[in-house]
Amino acid sequence: SPVGLICRYLSPRRFSSLVQTLLFFGGLLFVSYIVFTTFVVPSADGNAGAVLARIQRSGRRPGDGYVRVVDDKGRSGPGEQGAGVRLSGEEKTRGEADMKTWFMNVVASDKISLDRSIRDARRDECKAITYDLASLPRASVIIIFTDEAWTPLLRTVHSVINRSPPELLEEVILLDDNSQREELKEKLDEYVKRFDGLVKIVRKDVRHGLIRAKLAGARVAMGEVIVFLDSHCEANHGWLEPLVARIGESPSAVVCPIIDYINSHDLGYSGDPYANSVGGFSWSMHFTWEPMSESEKARRKSPTEYMRSPTMAGGLLAANREYFFKVGGYDEEMDIWGGENLEISFRVWMCGGSIEFIPCSHVGHIFRDGHPYNMTGRGGNKDVHGTNSKRLAEVWMDDYKRMYYLHRSDLKTKDVGDLTERHKLREKLQCKPFKWFLDNIVPDKFIPDENVQAYGMLQATVDGSKICLDTLQQDEKGSYGMGVYFCQGGGSSAQLISLARDGRLRRETSCAHGVVRERDTKGTVVMRSCREKGDEWLRVGEQLRHKDSGLCLSVRGVKSGEKIIIEGCDASAPEQQWKFVQS
Ligand code: UD2
Ligand code: MN
Fold first, then answer.
1. Which of 27, 300, 515, 551 could join 566 in a cystine, given CB atoms 3.0 to 4.6 angstroms apart?
2. What's a single GO BP term from this record (predicted)?
């Protein structure tokens, strides 16, 4: 029988050697399983070495041999206590020249200690909070840079190390995005040795652009939390604790410190303890500052609590590393600069997370008027913000991408690369529609063609020629006189205007006010921020009547390129007949 055959073959000796062999291979399998799951699998999501770090932590830690500068009192010298630096003579001239090449005064920066003191920008309620450091997640601080000037870069590093509790600072990663300047090579390697292993330099031999640079930094980070900073920042007192504390409490919160203002001309640091603006966006896909919504004010129980924000500025943020990758990191195909800040904001909200500003965490940033590096992207692309934003609009904004194309109709047919992966991500995470984001996260956002009485180009026809209301390319941030111009078919964004439900005649952010002079019979139309209560306009037949003055919008005697007027209403005057047209 077969059983008998096996028994005869398996003599006791053969049997025990078989068992030994089985045990050996079983053990080998078990060991490789442990090694694989511990060291190999975590690296798949950018977690390389996290486990190793945990093992190393028991003993002496990187950075233990570096003496931090923690006492800000009694320091004196240029720039101390956050003061601006006054230059004179030849230095002043060189400093002014820096403004054209660096867009910041490097001479002034070079005069200031890398350990300079700055005033604590927190409100008292924040200073009173104590943290149990042992229970908080540790952070990798990732500073990305391309050819940054020496002192602003290193002041960023010094401020982070000086003002972070060593218990919370896993490492500082300097992600060098292919800098060409010599001093950022060996000299920098040499310099960071003083930090005793706490500062790591990662260099890229091809230019990544800031979006891929951030991703590259996050992929080598070992901390449970990652914090991104621009390379010209100064971390303020107690900046790190409230960031990691909030992430510890809510791992799907992507949090930002309050960004304090460092003047690019003299490096003066001004912090606002009571800052309570949050992030918004314009339909041309730029970041804006907005007042906190009423509902958010009502929700918050204390001034130290996080503020939910629709968007973030982009540069300074912290996230749970695993969550950051799970929710899609950044769009790898976005190039050089721009768009990624709104992309991560929309995405995080729509996919179940939140964007928050942490009022007890302050970090200064040098705001520059230009970019001291080449902004040309791959294939000679000179419009990286435009094409990055198109990627974001196509993937995340559903039908509302039309609002972006109103501003950038030239991009409608532009190839911005493959979007399949990002669409797949949205599908995989089962993210909510953009409409949900608008309704729930930015309920006050004005949508020019929704819930309005009328929308389009506001057109009058005089002597057979069509003339339209037009901003005349004036800066819409301030107030400006509304003009008229020959109608530009196809919906030129400078001519689009809405008559809102509330009777306001408005554009995205500016509202039409009637300004009456000449003895109540004639006036002009001034556009001002819609945050102030705007004037009401009534549609009477084809006329547009300014409610307060009773005067009507008119092009009588107004030529293309000039300012529009309001005058006594006359239902038969062709100059007062207005149509909203779409093209
Ligand atoms: C803001 C953000 C910035 C980023 C950008 C939109 C703040 C304070 N800053 O612009 O982080 O979100 O909006 O994309 O919110 N860099 C590289 N490689 C490049 C280009 C830049 O590493 O190809 C570095 C650069 O050295 C700097 C950082 O990226 O450290 C941000 O650049 P920036 O300071 O010129 O951008 P900023 O502050 O105008
Ligand atoms: Mn910056």
1. 551
2. protein O-linked glycosylation
Per the structure block, which two tokens stand in for 182? 């010599």
What is the domain class of 381-440 according to CATH?
Answer: mainly alpha
* HSE (side-chain half, CA atoms, 13 Å) at 15: 7
What's the token pair of residue 292? 């906190």
Q: What ipTM is given for this predicted complex?
A: 0.99
* Residues that place a CB less than 5 A from ion ligand 2: 230
Residue 356: pLDDT above 60?
yes
- Best residue among 174, 210, 385 to mutate for probing ligand 1, ranked by most atoms within 8 Å of CB: 210
Cα–ligand 1 centroid distance for 184 (angstroms): 18
pLDDT digits (tens, 9 = 90+) for 119-153: 999 999 999 999 999 999 999 999 999 999 999 99
Q: How confident is the model at residue 44 (pLDDT cuts 50, 70, 90)?
A: very low
Name the pTM for this structure: 0.89
Give the ligand with the smallest distance to the CA of 145.
1
170 touches 133 (CB < 8 A):
no
What distance separates the 2 farthest-apart alpha carbons in the chain?
122
Fold of domain 452-581: Trefoil (Acidic Fibroblast Growth Factor, subunit A) (2.80.10)
Residue spans of the domains in the chain: they are 19-56, 125-367, 381-440, 452-581
Ligand 1: residues within 6 Å at CB? 144-146, 148, 177, 207, 209-210, 213, 230-231, 259, 313-316, 336-338, 340-341, 365, 371, 373
Q: Tell me the CATH number for domain 125-367.
A: 3.90.550.10
What gap in Å lies between CA 140 and CA 171, rounded to an integer? 5
Q: Is the pLDDT reported for residue 51 higher than 70?
A: no
Residue with tokens 């005033």: 119
